[in-house]
Amino acid sequence: MKQIKNDFGWHFDNTYSRLPELYYARQTPVPVRTPRMAVFNEALALSLGLNARALADDQGAAFFSGNVIPEGAEPIAQAYAGHQFGHFTMLGDGRAILLGEQVTPTAERFDIQLKGSGPTPFSRRGDGRAALAPMLREYIISEAMHALGIPTTRSLAVVTTGEPVFRGIAQPGAILTRVAASHIRVGTFEYVATHSDREGIPLLADYTLRRHYPKLVVADNPYLALLHAVMERQASLLAMWQQVGFIHGVMNTDNMAISGETIDYGPCAFMDVYDPATVFSSIDRSGRYAYGNQPNIAQWNLAQFARTLLPLLHQDIKEAVTIAEQAIESFPATFQRHWLFGMRARLGLITEEDGDLNLIETLLSWMQQHEADYTNTFRALTLNKLPDEPLFHEAAFTDWHTRWQLRLDHESTPKESTQLLMRARNPAIIPRNHRVEEALEAAVERSDFTVMERLLTALKTPYDDSPSHRDYQTPPAPSERAYQTFCGT
Ligand code: AMP
Ligand code: MG
After folding, report:
1. Which of 254, 264, 272, 284 is catalytic?
2. What is the CA(211)–ligand 2 centre distance, in A?
3. I need a surface site. Which of 31, 147, 186, 255 has the fewest CB within 10 A?
């Protein structure tokens, strides 16, 4: 594999590959035939300290395909385990390579990972590759999440490989460059707990503390503090998902990042009509990862995380279990605190009153009964005048609206500021499935990337109400609603 010396702005450090060899396998990407840039995130490149201009064309495609390894990178495939739909499995990066950690001009550190870069020792029966549509999908949704203000891995580039991948039918192959605070997962802890001696978990926990929670290193019990901090970030993250109607689709423990970022966009999607039972993933037949169940699953995953930390929580294992259980039992209340705070803000409420939860729940159950669009209903509330739709003249709604207006009168904030607050919390534009699919189809079937570029532009300012992007607010027609995403991506 040739390495190129040049001023592309690469500045790698490789702390993860200095951990014991148990944690990963050294592996370089398998070169591809004809890498071409499909989409490149210039703004993100600049913020990483990269030379965006030099990387925008074929030079960039050479790096982002793995054909050329940046100077200083030490490529590895990371080992991890995970509970998939509740069942424990050994996994690891089967189609991804971590190039290393890019250190930015402001001394931040980000994993740079190529997804779809060829087989690794963890590939099992997979081909190590990825198809173009799902990689573009991850690019679109992760960047939309970022613009919405939700912690997430980012997407730096998608390149096409010039090689087909076979997913039932032949599809164009592609590689996504993913940028993450780290790729340490709940499943990474599960892997180390299963595979190593007594030193393994403290080593990984210390590494994680230093990297993501440095202030906690000096806590009385840093490991208990780590557990609480991870729970806090997940509670906050899940509250944000629920607030925007984001459904992850495969909340396996290997798809939950210890950093608190949303990670691994597979069969994920945004909900249109409000319904807690919404599931998009074709393989989730029991609805384990349905919208309304996501907070419970987060708690379940965090319990798996806590289990790996038990030996560090107390010398006496019974004590340790009690401590862990207490922590995990506090998750629903922590989640509820974050969620309620966010939902109040969506209704323009800054102060807290006892009836607020009921006010919110009444609106949600009205939406469910009337199959109202989740995003547009909240957005409509931010306008001076409600849209003239039969739905908003419905008696149960007008009753609720009067009640909400009375509640708003208890706020000392002027109406105009309330509306501004609400507009900054209730997105006008989300990546609606039918529009995402339309963009992917144009790209994959006709090599037309302009549909996606226009969608990406609109998604950059989701809280703006620009007339030129108003068409993205239209919900899918009933015929477009029966949307499913498929795994084996
Ligand atoms: P995911 O559902 O994308 O989170 O992936 C679950 C596991 O399957 C991970 O260990 C992936 O690396 C692995 N995997 C998914 N697709 C492939 C593939 N095409 N080739 C090899 N491994 C894969
Ligand atoms: Mg995964």
Report:
1. 254
2. 21
3. 31
Tell me the residue type at 42.
Answer: E
DSSP string, 378-429: HHHTTSSS----GGGGSHHHHHHHHHHHHHHTT--S-HHHHHHHHHTTS-S-
Counting ligands in written order, the one closest to the CA of 267 is 1
Picking from 292, 257, 262, 260, the residue whose alpha carbon sits closest to that of residue 274 is: 292
Q: How far apart are the CA of 152 and the centre of ligand 1, in A?
A: 19
DSSP E strand stretches across 121-271: 130-131, 154-167, 169-180, 246-247, 269-270
Name the closest ligand to CA 268: 1
DSSP 475: P
Distances (CA, A) of 418 to 147, 356, 407, 408: 22, 16, 13, 9
Using alpha carbons, select from 292, 310, 330, 281 the residue that is nearest to residue 84: 281
| Position 487 confidence tier, pLDDT thresholds 50, 70, 90 | very low
pLDDT class of 482 with cuts at 50, 70, 90: low
Asked if 258 and 230 count as a contact pair (C-beta separation under 8 A), the reply is yes
